[in-house]
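Pair request: fold both.
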Amino acid sequence: MTKFLMNLKMSKTKDKVKAVKKSNGKQSKAIGSTQSLSSYVKSICDIMRRSNCASALQYVPELTWILFLRILDAQEQKEREEAEVLGNIYMPALVSPFRWQDWAAPYSDKPGHPKTADGKPQGWKRQELFAKGDKKLFDFINNELLPHLHGLDIDKATGQPNPNATRKQRIIGRIMTAVERVRVDSETNLRDILDKVHQLHTDNVDDTHFFTLSQVYEDLLLKMGEKNSDGGQFFTPREVIRAMVLTMNPETGKTIFDPCCGTGGFLAVVYEYLNQKLGKDIASTDIDVLKHNTFFGKEKENLVFPIALANLVLHGIDQPNIWHGNTLTNRPTYGALFENAPSTFDYIFTNPPFGGKEGKDAQDRYSYSTSSTQVLFVQDIIAHLSHEGTCAIVLDEGLLFRTNESAFVETKRKLVDECNVWAIISMPGGVFSTAGAGVKTNLLFFTKGKQTDKIWYYDLSHVKVGKKTPMTLAHFGFDKSGNVIEDSKLPATLTSDWLEDEEVKDEAFPTYAKMLASKSESRYSWTIDFAARRAEALEKMQPYKDNAAKLREEIIPLKEQLKVFKKEKKDKEEIKALELQITSIEKVIKEQEAIISDIDAKVFDLKAVNPNAVVKTDTRTTIEVIENIEAQAKIIEDAMSNLKKMLDKSEKEAIKQQTKNGVLNMPSRTQ
């Protein structure tokens, strides 16, 4: 039956393409590559930029809802056709005249022009509005379409969720909730945008490249993280996400969660990975689980929540289970799409906000109170991981090495006590420069249910990356398919130091991808025996613990004696002397406890410090350094001397030439 439906779909698609070509009177040029598709979308953004959507933070949300309604219409047409084949009744989420095919699709009265599901020419409503005069399309969208779409989810009379709404209608309502009016300020430009967006479908985009439409959308989201934009906080470089997913190698049939999902990048990339893993012969039941019951997320920002929903739908996740609200306060803004979520999850992929601060309402929910957003998120993640569930998380360097605040230390203690931290990647400082953040980061991987004994580290901090030279999968040693890449294809920024070293340049470069399976040691990878570190710290602390315990025993009779002295009203000097003795001992106890605490805290400094790094040192003597400076000065002096000679010769030749041509002014006799 599935094969029959696919053949039928292909047949109908071909018929529709022929109809489009016929109605246009000429063949539509197919968009046949990612590059041409990207250029095409850029042309849409150019129209928006000159039409009251100057920045990415303005035109990306505007294009989001327009693109979403286009894709939704295509999906509904496909679902209706499949239902008809099976003899089932199909109930669409949108009805006339609120479907894209009614008000947004281009209109033509030529024979062969595509028809709507109820037999009208596509674009009939748009043509009707055009005939009524200028601004009528705006009036329809602002006063009829948008209120209708908002009302799919929220009952206009009560302001409460519509109990009769289908899940798809709830998603539509949530995506459209941030759209109050059309931002584009020219109907002519809006019609141009609608026409161009209408072409973004399999009728006009080569089937082998259609999935790249979602990748082009990711490029648009990246623009929200450009300089002077607030969008960067919502964007994690997709190549970094793909490396994290390849490291985790998630299984199908498991739940995937991101507690601060932003635009949904982690969930979208995991979906791509699992979809490819299942292959072309995927069973319909597996498709249903993958699209409906696999991906869950939470997002706080009002601007980003609808974009996340649209992004996931665009990637193929028909029913995203996204909760809108503050994860850390557990206070929902909108939670209806998250009703079927489990209490714990098999995999968590996430990048908590850097440097965020939370108030008491969030802090009071966690065992170790702090305003640091990332520390609270780590506690939240541990609580929401299933037994033997695994997490891949981006954390800033400060969280790893800070040992001067109790919440940081205790959270990391909880992490290594309840979870096995099995890998940490030290990332270059410029990885998040595209998102407006230069903070040093690490990738952590851990599995709940067993305490940490050993931590394997890999160092990528030597790689030079930035906005124009971003991190790629190749820096991790993976090719685009996730296979281990050949040394000859590795980036020069990764291997330059290695190839300059005469001792190792002819050996295979130890990429992260190569080292991961065996967790081997190399110039860039090493293992910390965390259990041994803890045991060593306990041994080091023991003398101080023993001494503090001994002093506590000594102080007990002294305090009892003090009580007696005060009761018997002994001489004030005797009482004072005893009090000073007790205070002195208590001070020593506190000093011992501070040393114990410091030794203990240092155990939880998880910062990556590569013991195998080759440090280039200057072995020259002071005399040799001075001689080198003198030699360099001589080179500069000779160069300046030669330059002066060249300039002098050039000036003389110029004067000679001017004199010859009679151009040079001769001085008068009166001068």
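--- second member of the pair ---
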Amino acid sequence: MLSSFPANVLSASTLKAFTCFLVCAVMAFGIGLNEAQAQNRVEVTGTVIDATDGEPLPGATIIVQGSSEATGSTIGTTSLMDGTYSINVPENLNVLVVSFIGYITQEVEINGRTTVDIELEPDIRQLADVVVVGYGTQEEREITSAVASVDEERFNQGNVNDSAQLLQGKVAGLNVTNRGGNPNAGSTIRLRGLSTVGANTEPLIVIDGVIGADLANVDPSDIQSVDVLKDGSAAAIYGTRGSSGVILVTTKKGNYDTGDPEGNIRLDYNGYVSAAMVENQQPVMSATEYIEAGGNDLGSVTDWQDLVTRTGVSNVHNIAVSGGTGNTIYRVSTNFRDVNGVLEQSGFRQINARANITHNALDDRLTLTLNASTTRRDIDNSFEEALRYAVLYNPTAPVRFDNGEFFQAILFDNFNPVAIYEQNVNEGQRKAINYNVQAQFDPIENLSINANIARQFNSQSFGEFYPSTSFFRGLNRNGLARRYFEDRDFTLFETYASYNDTFIDRLDATITGGYSFQETFQEGLTIEMGNLPTNVQSYYGIDLSGDRVLGNPANVFLDSYATPDERIIAFFGRLNVTYDNGIFFNASFRREGSTKLGPENQWGSFPAFSIGTDISRFFDIDAITQMKIRLGYGVTGALPGPNGLAQDLYTYSFAGGGTVSKARDANPDLKWEEKTEINLGVDFGLFEDRLTGALDVYTRDIDDFILEIAVPTDQFPSGTQFQNAGRLRTYGLEFQVNYDAYQSQNVFWNTGIVFDTYSTELEEFIIDEQMRANLGSPGQNATNMIRVAVGEQIGQIWGPVFSGEVNPDGTPVFVDLNGDGQLITDQGNALSENGDFKQLGKGFPDFTLGWTNQVNYKNWELNAFFRGAFGHSLVNTYRAFYEPIDPGAINSYNRVITDKAVEGLTVSQFSSLYVEKADFVKLDNVTLAYNFDVSSIEAFRRIRAYVTLENAFTITNYTGIDPEPVLQDRGSTDNGGRISPFADVLSAGIDRRNNYFTARTLTFGLNIGF
């Protein structure tokens, strides 16, 4: 069952560190000494230590038994950072009650002593690592699937505004990227590479038991721990929504202090201020270099990249109140974020509130939990295009004319970067309300019945305004305004029961069975108007009555949609068996139906099983504390993103009085995508668990992935249809290890490495070979850079090879790869048998690596996290367009300058010249923190100050601004001049010209507990 208390998701290794934050908590809220009544008392001192290793236990609670009845108030204290304590004990009282999270509470008789040292024994039951899995929890030692857990202590720190970034580099096989760091762009999350080529490419998010929750609606400060279900045997219990893996988020709950039965309240403040500065700019010509190269001198010296960027100062504040009594615990938090990006006018302001209340009744047989949250985010999107045009705009051009109006050259694809964001408006708003009520009832011993009902309401609106004076999108429409609205309503009801017992000698089993109902409704509206009668930068005030929108109907665009009620209904069951505490077996089955598919294929079955054994249980080897071998098999599915792909689609046109035509043909045989995964793993613990880790190898087959394809018009009038079009296979390996390298009374050093590698092959496809991913304009619209071929790896960057020589006319000389004496390098022949093309690189890295080092010295903490990716390449599209010095074009556009530039080259044509190895190592995050000793200050439980530097440095040979892998492609631009919202996951490795500039961020933070 999902536990109501956070201690259940804390690992043994984190309990000590977590408790350091609770130093003096009892003293601060009513357990402190009452000096007014300190008559006839004896001072008792001593040290509280761990009985197993002799290490001090800071924050242990020491209470004088019976003091409340004898004196009218509880007499108590807590141990300091070195485990020492001091307490005044009335002469007529003789027993100290000593407690510490994860240890057995001990009652110690004083018997006239003034020095009482105490050794606490670990409570094995509490110290067992508990992992959240689908519809329940399991002890870590019983897990037979590929599951990883990350608690709050291991999260990334600093200016984290997207909860997914807490996990970046922390879980082997989990890749979290936000190239450039746009504060309004969510992270791309991939678990074990490609799991589909359609929708649902990212893991399923489950927050406090609510399936399909949005990470944007939970503030990073409110997350207690995250469990990642990586393989099919773990994720199959979620059926069609688990194909890309599952991320289970547990938020922070209230607390109950057993030393204060009347209840207690804790107040926690977490806040920081950060400054984000541009890490790298695109290397371009200065005004002097531009003029010397033949550029048009307009008389000014302008650093456009500097003008459109800034130091983005952000501040974040989180206040949480928690407490409880014997039957009820609660936590209420409010989070405010004012975040500013390095691009001028980009950022957001967000307020989020979250509440959790848990109540126990019927002699603790009934537990009721309410989780509720609301979020409002006001967004300044600015225009990423300002960064692009800042790179290529004439460095001798002024920002404004003498009369104050913006300077603008009349050129193709060339706009004043400052005017873009100052003249135009691009803003939005997101709102979310989420709640769920959970009930757990234990009618008899070993039987638990659970129910969960949840609702999620999401709405968003975005608006753009371009006056007629704006050359960027407004001029050619005589003013332009757009508004977009979208609402989403999600309902979830799930119920399941679990029974556990010892059925025969040494055989324990847990049986779980349940039902799930999910329903989603979504609708949207887009309105666009041109030829506006105003240039005021606030289109909200435009009166639409009368004939205010001038011209013909072509100046007005309306589009709306509404989905049917999308439903998923499922029945599921699971069996967990443990034999002799050393052999473990898990089997699950889910039968699920969805309204998104054809009537003949709405239901699917998703089985899974896994088995494991801890051989250290049967062989007594001193150095080995765990050596668990596990094998898992699981089947998951994936649904298409939109509704109605199995049905006919029609369009209506006003032309000629109105006509209806078929836009897409139905496919009643459309069915699930299905992923089958086999995982073999080893979990190990050596030297009393000072060295721990896991190794996993896996293979996964993705069958029947869904794509829209061209079909014969003699059978299908529209010429297009969604079909189950192919098959992918992935092989992968993951390794994770942690080592307590040094331990002493004052110094602790832990180091850890995560490593993963995978390769994906296209095994079946409706087309044997094709080119994808257009380079774009100007001049290279027909240049596709990515090759996809059956029987070969995904991610091939494909093109001609540059010889290093240049023709007299400035064109590049390519290599005759097939040696036939002729060069065939035009893009239309990229797949021809006699074409001179080859693989120039690949978009996916050979492997990624993360290295964490955590050092504690007395009250100081230092955490340094390095990350790297190796073996991938990037197409540097800035170089591909703007590096050759064209005598004509340089009058209009600045030029990128790198040490890879070729003298005399004047023609831009895609080739190996612009494909660069992008291996990198970076110090991703380094944090230095100090925990103040507040043992003598009653008002505080903790005070922690820290400073964090993100993107401290990057070591790479890539000449672009960011060597991070590009895992998917959104193309160059769509018809509206904006980036496509649809990602092509088969096309990796293209560093487009629309990327946000990467930032280096310095953060100062404070954590205070009252």
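Observation on the second member. The radius of gyration is 31 Å.
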